[in-house]
Amino acid sequence: MSTLNLTLVLFVGLLLVLVFVLFMAGLAYVTHRHPRLEKPLTVAFGGGGVLVAVVVGLVAVVALTT
In 3D, which of 43, 42, 39 has the Cα closest to residue 25? Predict the structure, then answer.
């Protein structure tokens, strides 16, 4: 793998992690600030879905760059 491809993969991975952290912080804020909206199962599925999306995106980037 060339240096450019490795740099691109690491950069995209970093961006995906940052988006994931921001999304999870948003979920935490909503469930803390508005307790009546808190549905733990819904929040868990939302967080899990985002985690799966991050992993799939990272795998896709790696697959496209190799």
Answer: 43
Q: What is the pTM of this model?
A: 0.58
DSSP state, residue 34: -
- In order along its 66 residues, the chain shows pLDDT tens digits of 688 888 887 888 888 888 878 877 887 787 777 777 667 667 767 777 887 888 788 788 878 877
Neighbour tally for 61: CB within 10 Å: 19
Residue indicated by tokens 């909206």: 37
Amino acid letter for position 4: L
Measured distance CA(45)–CA(14) in Å, rounded:
23
